[in-house]
Amino acid sequence: MFYRAARSLLFSLEPECAHEFAFGALESARRLGASRLLTGLRVPKLPVHAMGLEFTNPVGLAAGLDKNGDHIDALLDLGFGFIEVGAVTPRPQPGNPKPRLFRLPDANALINRMGFNNLGVDHLVDNFRKRTPRGIVGVNIGKNFDTPNERAAEDYLHCLRKVYPHASFITANVSSPNTSGLRALQYGEAIDSLLGALALERAALEQQYGRRVPLALKIAPDLEDPDIEAVAERVLAHGIDAVIATNTTLSRKGVEHLGPSRETGGLSGEPLRRRATEVVAKLTPRLQGRATVIGVGGISSAADAQEKLDAGATLVQVYTAFIYRGPGLIPEMVRGLAKEAGAKR
After folding, report:
1. Percentage above 70 pLDDT, the chain
2. Which end of the chain has fewer CB atoms within 10 angstroms, the N or the C?
3. In 3-state terms, the chain is what percent helix, strand and coil (to 5)?
4. Residue of 77, 20, 82 whose CA lies nearest to 50
């Protein structure tokens, strides 16, 4: 009820302004001790064990909303089973020129071409150091826009070393469509080399810190079947713990008639749901139960989340539906999943 009224105000603002306004309101609620009340309902426990971690429930927040880790505690208060911050790069960068975020309300979708805008990994690490450790918080890492792909591994390794002592898990993002050439890192020798370098460095960091931080890989929904199979092979070969499927899509299928569909960038939300589920279903058997699948894309209800779980995902993440539905979406989804789990017993 509260968010339905607030959304009218937020959607009257330019999307990035609305983003900052909403986070300001969330932080104010947290300072007043009221952030947990924004969901309207208590979020039930629905424990999940994955990647060697214990999740209070399987519903997470996808990377991209809190790029700099400025609002971790406030977001955890909303009842997410886990959140993922970032994508973060070694050096601060402004991202692509504005406007770069567009709403498609008729399709419950967004198009963004943000371009890894963030304040750099050191800023994010400072935020981790200031907070009281709690909950499961992953960090999504990427490369700076001006780092050539031949040296991309250096950027990923730099971020890996920086966030390793703080992150619950770390995701290599090679699938954003908004950094020129980034998606080329998903293929062939490039992905093999990158995952090999990350796995080798993770082994050294595990010895240094006495803890093993899971590694995940985030892939695009636009991969062809042979590419999905090749990614799965490389994930298993290098002992990567999870695959996040999927990022945004370059396809405009189903939204061609909407004006903002002409904007460049990645499409997220309901139009992506079916394709993202297909990727989960194709990926899962190829991973042979040796790596966790986190399903993302078009999840706006418990039924949508269950669809991803039935396709083989163990965990799910939301983003666009959280923008459209607000904090009440989280308890609604977890309650629905708990009811479905109880019915299957």
Report:
1. 99
2. C
3. 45, 15, 35
4. 82
Q: What is the DSSP pairing of strand 242-245 with strand 137-141?
A: unpaired
d(CA 221, CA 146): 25
DSSP letter string over 293-307? EEEESS--SHHHHHH
pLDDT, position 1: 52
Per-residue pLDDT tens over the stretch 75-87: 999 999 999 999 9
Give CA torsion, residues 35, 337, 217, 111, to 10 deg: -70
Alpha-carbon distance of 305 to 340, in angstroms, equals 11
Residue 119, Ramachandran bin (φ over 0: left; ψ between -120 and 50: alpha; else beta)? alpha
Phi and psi at 118, nearest 5°, equal -165, 165
What one-character DSSP code corresponds to residue 52? T
Backbone angles phi, psi at 296, to 5 degrees: -140, 140
Summarised one tens digit per residue, pLDDT across range 177-209 is 999 999 999 999 999 999 999 999 999 999 999
Query: Is the pLDDT assigned to residue 214 strictly greater than 70?
Result: yes
**Which CA distances in Å does 278 have to 68, 98, 238, 272, 295?**
31, 33, 24, 10, 10
Mean pLDDT confidence for 153-172: 98
Catalytic residue among 35, 168, 175, 176: 176
Inter-CA distances, 274 with 62, 111, 179, 217, 230, Å: 18, 17, 25, 20, 22
Q: Is 168 a catalytic residue?
A: no
| Residue type present at position 149 | N
Domains and CATH numbers, the chain: 2-344 (3.20.20.70)
Q: Do 117 and 67 form a contact (C-beta atoms < 8 A)?
A: yes
Q: Using the structure block, give the residue that is written with the tokens 């370059």.
A: 250
Integer Cα distance of 100 and 86 in angstroms: 17
